[in-house]
Amino acid sequence: MIELHYYPGNASLFPHMLLRELGVPFDLRLVDRRVDAQNSAAYLALNPAGKIPVLVHDGRAITETVAIGLYLADAYPAAGLAPPPGSPERGDYYKWMAQIANTLQAEFRAWFYPHEFTTDPDGAEAVKTAVGRRLTAAFERIADQLGERPWLLESGVSAADLYLWLMIRWGRTLPTPAREIGALGALAERVQTRPAARAALEIEGLEAPFV
Ligand SMILES: N[C@@H](CCC(=O)N[C@@H](CS)C(=O)NCC(=O)O)C(=O)O
Questions:
Q1: What are the residues facing 2 on neighbouring strands?
Q2: How large a percentage of the chain has pLDDT more than 90?
Q3: Does 14 lie in the same domain as 73?
Q4: Is 91 exposed, middle or buried (0-12, 13-18, 19+ CB in 10 A)?
Q5: Which positions of the chain have pLDDT values less than 70?
Q6: What distances in angstroms separate CA 105 from CA 89, 164, 166, 199, 201, one per listed residue?
Q7: Burial 110-119 (b: 16+ CB within 10 A, else e)
Q8: For ligand 1, what atom is nearest to the CA of residue 36?
Q9: What radius of gyration do the chain's Cα atoms show?
Q10: In a shared domain, residues 96 and 11
């Protein structure tokens, strides 16, 4: 039994799309941020950090978006969304998953919550300016490595593309929208037209344009 604790458009959207791609049954549990439910005692028992998402699989809670993605893609290998452990492309896959988590997703925390990154009450704008530049540079590096390939991995679509899609979506709020950088917009379009992705977007009540 799998439960995904989510909020529309949050980091949970990546594991939500992935679960639908994998074709496994799961329950969606809304963490209602409008009433600060991520800091309720019940939720903190699942994730002491009070962050979304949490995946609960047979009673065991898994936190951290990248960990949930890596775990799910390996747990359901028939979908082919992760190169097999030990295969040559596995290293590339880890690289992309780690880079998206440690660089893009972590930097977006500063973009969306700039006040957490300064003790200056008037410092949020300066944090956003600096991190916005860092994010654009990070997207440019990824676009350079992607080149004209359709997906991050040469062998085809993987969980990393779904994760990158969510970052491109968040990147629509940057001074240079991420979709405008190299082939990132084309990759995003390829992801969001897949039936699994469309179902997740519809269920979360998100409206086009998605990126
Ligand atoms: N490192 C965590 C970060 C998750 C995170 O920052 N989630 C945001 C939503 S996208 C959140 O829970 N925000 C509510 C809050 O910080 O109170 C992960 O990857 O799961």
A1: 57
A2: 100
A3: yes
A4: exposed
A5: none
A6: 22, 9, 9, 23, 19
A7: bbeebeebee
A8: 17
A9: 17
A10: no
Quick one: 69 and 134 in the same domain?
Answer: no
Residues 72-107: tens digit of each pLDDT? 999 999 999 999 999 999 999 999 999 999 999 999
Q: How far, in Å, is the centroid of ligand 1 from the Cα of 129?
A: 21
* Residue range 110-135, pLDDT digits in tens: 999 999 999 999 999 999 999 999 99
- List the CATH number of the domain containing 148: 1.20.1050.10
pLDDT at position 40? 98
Domains in the chain: how many in total? 2
Ligand 1 atom nearest to 109, measured from its CA: 6
Q: Whose CA is closest to atom 15 on ligand 1? A: 51
Domain membership of residue 199 (yes or no) is: no
137 and 68 in one domain? no
Ligand 1 site, residue 109, Cβ cutoff 6 A: yes
Q: Are residues 94 and 187 in the same domain?
A: yes
Does the C-beta of 52 come closer than 6 Å to ligand 1?
yes
Residue 62: predicted pLDDT: 98
Give residue 8 CA to ligand 1 midpoint distance, Å.
12
CATH number of the domain to which 45 belongs: 3.40.30.10
Domain residues for the domain of 57 are 2-79
